[in-house]
Design goal:
The chain has helices at about 1-25, 130-155, 160-165, and strands spanning about 30-35, 50, 55-65, 70-80, 90-95, 100-105, 125-130. The protein is an alpha/beta fold. It starts with a helix and ends with a helix.
Length: about 170
Amino acid sequence: MRLASLLVAAVAILLFTLWLGKTDSDKQYEHYDIAFREAVSGLSRGSKVEFNGIKIGEVTALRLDPKDPQRVFARVRVDNSAPIRTDTRARLVMAGITGTSFIRLSSGHDPDSQPLRREGDEVPVIEAKPSALNKLLSDGGESALNIGELVNQLRAIVSAENAESLRL
């Protein structure tokens, strides 16, 4: 009796596991290439793809553009019900302090934009905007110069001569 109930429980667990796996395999996906003109540090196969904060897919491959090594392509697999349109843009986002990254997609809010579809064998390409961190780092040199100039001006204001004139 115990062996029979153990066997029934094992079969039930196996069937439940197969059912769970089938629900994910029933989903239909579209593939897109996200084109970045920046380093994609922290992005890897399996990194999530979000649209308005909702996970809609994952990165399946990363590669350099053979014609332009400054350009990186991330192939993504996205749920086919996601509203990917011709005005959809991508951005690389850091996921907290872990050093990992993910891709955030957003709409350009153009009411006339059409769904982004495959043409022949070509995978549709979504252009990525530079990430906020990349903008900060690329503008960092100029900001550092501006801060340095500001510090020099403050030193001149609080110099010994000016401090003496302020005491009067």
